[in-house]
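Can't paste images in this forum, so I'm doing it all in text. The chain is below; anyone willing to post the predicted structure tokens underneath?
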Amino acid sequence: LFVRPGYKRIDLSLSESKSFFGSAWISPEGDKIVAVYSNLSEKGIRLHEVHEGWSNEPKSVVTYTTSSNKSLKEGSVANGEDVILDAGSVTTVIYNLK
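Text version of the structure:
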């Protein structure tokens, strides 16, 4: 739904965990990065992100979470705040760079 034709996969490094993984994609225009995270654990996870190699820091960050009680629930992350991944969820994070 969020990774559109023409998007290219980019490197996403995560700490080693069997219950937490993800992938990231950049738009053809280079103005959006879409990361999809799966958190299979019973605890929420706070992402401590480092954006190495990004041309710009995000202007806005929007999340979409699906879990046992959410269905693509939209959220936003204030500038400088960490993204929180709910327990047992799949969360798409859209970083708007321009």
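The beta strands are 8-10, 20-26, 32-39, 45-46, 60-67, 70-77, 84-85, 89-96. The longest strand covers residues 32-39.
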